[in-house]
Amino acid sequence: MSDKVLTLGLIGAGAIARHAYFPVFKEISGLRLTAIVEPNEKIRQSLQDRYSLNYLGDDIKAAIDHVDAVIICVPNYLHYNIAKFCLEKGKHVLCEKPVCINLNDAENLVETAKRNSLVFTAAHVRRFYPAVAKIKEMIAERSLGALTGFDFREGTVFSWQTVSGFTFDKEKAGGGVLMDIGVHLLDLLFWWIDDKVASFQYADDSLGGVEATAEIQITFRRGIAGHVKLTRLAVLNNFYTLYFERGTISWNPFAPSRIYIRSGDDKTASLKIRKGQPVRDMLMDFSGAILGKRPAFVKGEEAIQGLQFIEACYASRKAIPMPWIIGGTSF
Amino acid sequence: MKLSASRVLITGATGFIGGRIAERLWLDYQMSARCLVQSFAGASRLARLPVSLYPGNMLDKDSLEKAIGDSNVIFHCAYGKSDDSALNARINEEGLQNIGELALKRGVERFIHLSSVAVYGTEPPEVVTEKTPLRLSEDEYGNSKIRTEAVCQDLMKRGLPIVIIRPTIVFGPFSPIWTIGAIKRVLSGGWENTGDINGLCNPVFIDDLVNGLFLCVKNDSAIGQIFNISGPQAITWNDFFNAYKKIAGIVHEPSHPNRKAQTILATVRPFSRRIIKMLRKPIEPQMLDIYEWLKVSRPGLAAELYALASSGIQEDEKRRFNQKTVYPIEKAKKIIGYQPKTFSEGMEITKQWLKYYEYIR
């Protein structure tokens, strides 16, 4: 089966497909894009001559028989129904994050995939940065001693040109910045620390809509404790910093080929790592998992762990104290 | 009329002023405004509220129809800010005409039009009241605001209950020029050697402006009026920027850690702005993309580039910073009961916001 070329269907050809997937499809020899399902006719027309497709249209039912596997890039609230349909049709699924907007649905998908012996994985693409794997190694090596804490900050001024605006609809997106960038950040945090959460406190700036800023204080069972800050409203000091007994390791997700290491003597060294091609590598991992070479690097259960935590955060939500928000009664 | 019982549409709702109007309507009155949104890219702040977002723009009449719904109050904050001045003019004038006609047809009870003191031209007299004649100048923004006010006057004559607001220097959380721009300016050494600067600044805190806008809805006597909206008093431009320096903890002139870079910067600074201006138009989207990427991935380098492009007080800015114009707010005080708080009260809130979002440490 190792020489087989897998046929792939892309469900949803909007912003994420354009930015992340289209540039790499042709680079992967074992995968061939044979079907695209996209409701927007203009987008479909723009794709007509770019790939030799067996199907280009808006009907997933008509597309499904042309493929071995699918990548799902539709708005969050549609993930579950589409993934469920594909899995029940015997197709492997790589689903954009968050895999679902509620935990029950995600569990159901993982279960369906298992029952049908199919690959179901989440597009937690940052896991595929070589620097991320290197940091995992460094934590295990304990050259700076044991891991004691962390401070993860990620903030940019949101500028994603979402056509439908679903990102800002609570029902369709499932949440705000935590459900969006938070999924990536928490995936790395949980993977690096590899422990269960013992306690946490969550706060955000939602005033009834989707949060643009979120903060979490987390303590893991082994006692590693730290802070997460996310925002769509400003550029923060974008570093994921891990504190060890004798120093720190920092990584900027927007400059992913460098790791900064500060040792106990207060000297900072920067370690250059190859940037890699995370989207390509993620697709190759997906293809390898389908061909039975190895399990998918990001397991469905790991996506569930992140969602479980996010749901718990939303359920215990407090408001971030923001004096500038207070209304006219005080000003 | 009762603002708390009204139904509001905000145009330009993803902007600094429109965004705060939406927040305050929710915080003060638990009112979910209808918001016209030209691009979802800028909607993060707005989407924190339970507001209704209507995609569209001022030139798309169908989108305006959908957005206006049953609104009886409109805060019109939208204006064209692209590099295409012809398109901006259309958005400002034709767009206002579009929403104004619709408002007339629907019997809107209050239409608040956001203008600017820029209508008084680039060389205003020392005391500017609402009666001071408007003056066309080389400032296209001000000229455009003059033309939109003319559209307002016409709509007013035809029965639309318009109030025209001319804010001064609006600062506070999310203010792109007079807070974010100001703090970046002082951090990049852009407010140094100001011995020859002695003009007056008329700052107004965003919540004071919003209070003023709300008072224009609450007071029927505001209909048909024009108000200059400023803070309680003018301060010097030095006081204004020094307040930012103080909250940024800048005591002395910032010195660049890299002497070589400092020398290069000092050499190219006099020319850099001109060159960047020349280069800007044809490659601006790419430059902005690169700059945005640098801001998140190489903040130090981005800050240096920003300093290169903006540092120092440029000759063309000196005229503004040396003007001694004041904009009395007596009319707004008398007719709508406008009472702004002090500059330092607004600045204290601004400081907390800047700290939280890591513009300052």
Describe the model.
- The complex is a heterodimer of chains A (331) and B (361).
- Chain A is 31% helix and 25% strand.
- Chain A is of the alpha/beta class.
- Chain A is globular.
- In chain A, helix 4 runs parallel beside helix 5, helix 6 packs across helix 8 and helix 8 packs across helix 10.
- In chain B, helix 5 packs across helix 7 and helix 8 packs across helix 9.
- Chain B has a seven-stranded parallel β-sheet with strand order 3-2-1-4-5-6-10, sandwiched between helices. Chain B has a two-stranded parallel ribbon with strand order 7-9.
- The mean pLDDT of chain B is 89.
- Chain B has a domain of 238 residues: Rossmann fold, CATH 3.40.50.720.
- Chain B is globular and about 65 Å long.
- Chain B is an alpha/beta fold.
- Chains A and B meet through loops of A and helix 1, helix 6, helix 8 and helix 12 of B.
List the helices and strands and how they pair.
The complex is a heterodimer of chains A (331) and B (361).
Chain A: E1 6-11, H1 15-21, E2 31-37, H2 41-47, E3 55-57, H3 60-63, E4 69-72, H4 79-88, E5 92-95, H5 103-115, E6 120-122, H6 130-141, E7 147-155, H7 170-173, H8 177-193, E8 197-204, E9 213-220, E10 225-231, E11 240-244, E12 247-251, E13 258-263, E14 268-272, H9 278-290, H10 300-315, E15 318-319
Parallel strand pairs in A: 1-2, 1-4, 2-3, 4-5, 5-6, 7-10, 8-15
Antiparallel strand pairs in A: 7-11, 8-9, 9-10, 11-12, 12-13, 13-14
Helix pairs in contact in A: 4-5, 5-10, 6-8, 8-10
Chain B: E1 8-11, H1 16-29, E2 34-37, E3 52-55, H2 61-68, E4 73-76, H3 85-106, E5 110-114, H4 140-157, E6 162-167, E7 169-171, H5 176-187, E8 200-201, E9 203-205, H6 206-218, E10 226-229, E11 235-236, H7 237-247, H8 259-297, H9 299-310, H10 315-322, H11 330-336, H12 343-356
